[in-house]
TrEMBL record:
<keyword id="KW-0812">Transmembrane</keyword>
<comment type="similarity">
    <text>Belongs to the galactose-3-O-sulfotransferase family.</text>
</comment>
<keyword id="KW-0472">Membrane</keyword>
<dbReference type="InterPro" id="IPR027417">
    <property type="entry name" value="P-loop_NTPase"/>
</dbReference>
<keyword id="KW-0333">Golgi apparatus</keyword>
<dbReference type="InterPro" id="IPR009729">
    <property type="entry name" value="Gal-3-0_sulfotransfrase"/>
</dbReference>
<dbReference type="GO" id="GO:0001733">
    <property type="term" value="F:galactosylceramide sulfotransferase activity"/>
</dbReference>
<keyword id="KW-1133">Transmembrane helix</keyword>
<keyword id="KW-0808">Transferase</keyword>
<dbReference type="GO" id="GO:0000139">
    <property type="term" value="C:Golgi membrane"/>
</dbReference>
<keyword id="KW-0735">Signal-anchor</keyword>
<dbReference type="GO" id="GO:0009247">
    <property type="term" value="P:glycolipid biosynthetic process"/>
</dbReference>
<protein>
    <recommendedName>
        <fullName>Galactosylceramide sulfotransferase</fullName>
    </recommendedName>
</protein>
<keyword id="KW-0325">Glycoprotein</keyword>
<dbReference type="Pfam" id="PF06990">
    <property type="entry name" value="Gal-3-0_sulfotr"/>
</dbReference>
Length: 417
């Protein structure tokens, strides 16, 4: 058997510089990637980025010393550099906010440039995205960016103008009936249409296809967010071409119903670590919407009829996803999902508190009335970032980017130098 060199890190802490807050990967947990031959212990509270080629390095006041040990090679050990360039098309009501929060957190941590609107969280919609929509006060010197993760409508040529050439393109889809029910409840579409769900499901397609709340929210939302309008002009041949074009555009299409598996594939695509994609389920509907399984067959069939383009999109990318999981390795996937769920559980234990706990984080938690936020601690910055509303964390990123702009983007100039 061929041997290989593994690295074990021994930690020497400088007491006066130890972090006061315990967060994420702790000594007692011994988190590590599955089959990874690198063992790490660090009582400072977090796993830093480590250069495996250095004999010693210092991160956050912690001295990391590597000791090389001969060990047989193990499957799952990867040798790649984390990717920082990502275009994420945020499709409504597809667990996209949880994914977006992961990306914003990563971008904030690594000081990555973002495509941002002047205010809010939309840049394109109803009209598809155009590069000219980016406000001058938030533009980088070359008007290209590491990340685009806000709401927009897909317009590939214009997005390609502002994304780095090596950016990975990702989106997420959801079972169409479940997605529409979530959309129906969240945006109060019964009030907008002045019809019950059962009545709406009986309407003809041509009546509802252009009937959208705020000209954005309505039937076959995935097809709409992907840049298309009415499906009346597309036959089966044209839809097949659209699906193939989307498959060529996106490096990964995640599935909301298989969210943890999707994050494992994302982690693999981006060469990130488990801690980079760990998450908290921070909000839930106060009044649960009707489940797709409680609908009458007639209503369900009506929604599927009106959502035909989304049904085709979901069925196609469900097959692509399963093929990708099989290529990744079913057993390997199960190991990685288990690791992610352990990390999520650990995160929940650290970050969540009772609602009457004095440490409860209360600022920037202005969720709409339909949403009940998860109670998290306000004394740990990482927990706060995971609990903020989308608008609040976007404001943080926007403020950071405005400072960079006023200073002449010094870190970008330094990187180019």
């Amino acid at each position: 058997m061929v041997g290989c060199t593994a690295v074990v890190f021994i930690v020497s802490l400088q007491p006066q510089q130890q972090r006061k807050s315990k967060f994420f990967y702790q000594v007692s947990s011994h988190w590590r990637e599955p089959n990874d031959s690198t063992e790490v212990t660090n009582s400072s509270g977090a796993i830093p980025s480590l250069d495996h080629n250095n004999v010693a390095s210092e991160v956050d006041g912690t001295v990391w010393t590597s000791v090389k040990v001969n060990r047989n090679s193990a499957p799952g050990v990867r040798n790649c550099q984390p990717r920082t360039n990502l275009m994420f098309l945020k499709i409504h009501k597809c667990a996209s906010s949880t994914a977006q929060r992961i990306f914003l957190r990563y971008g904030k941590k690594h000081k990555l440039t973002q495509v941002l609107p002047l205010t809010g969280n939309y840049l394109g919609a109803p009209p598809p995205f155009k590069s000219a929509m980016i406000p001058h006060s938030l533009r980088t010197p070359d008007n290209t960016y590491n990340m685009m993760v806000i709401h927009t409508r897909l317009h590939t040529p214009e997005l390609e103008k502002v994304m780095k050439p090596d950016a990975k393109w990702v989106t997420i889809v959801r079972e169409p009936v479940a997605q529409f029910l979530s959309l129906w409840a969240y945006f109060d579409l019964m009030k907008f249409y002045n019809k019950t769900l059962e009545e709406f499901a009986k309407l003809p397609y041509e009546k509802v296809v252009r009937w959208r709340n705020a000209r954005v929210y309505g039937i076959h939302q995935m097809f709409y967010d992907l840049g298309y309008g009415s499906a009346e002009e597309y036959g089966e041949k044209e839809m097949t071409a659209i699906l193939q074009r989307l498959n060529q555009t996106f490096h990964l299409v995640m599935l909301a119903e298989r969210f943890d598996e999707s994050l494992v594939l994302l982690k693999d695509l981006m060469c990130w670590r488990t801690e980079d994609v760990a998450y908290l389920s921070i909000n839930s509907l106060v009044r649960p919407i009707d489940s797709a399984t409680t609908l009458t067959n007639t209503t369900r069939a009506g929604i599927l009829r009106l959502s035909k383009p989304d049904v085709q999109i979901y069925d196609f990318f469900s097959r692509m996803f399963q093929e990708r999981v099989e290529g990744f390795g079913v057993e390997r996937m199960a190991q990685e999902v288990q690791l992610l769920r352990q990390a999520n559980q650990h995160l929940t234990q650290i970050c969540t508190v009772d609602r009457d706990d004095p440490r409860l984080y209360k600022e920037h938690m202005n969720w709409i009335d339909k949403v009940k936020p998860l109670p998290v601690r306000g004394d740990i910055p990482e927990c706060i970032d995971m609990a903020k509303t989308e608008l609040s964390i976007l404001d943080d990123v926007r403020s950071m980017q405005r400072v960079w702009s006023k200073k002449g983007w010094p870190h970008l100039v330094r990187d180019r130098g």
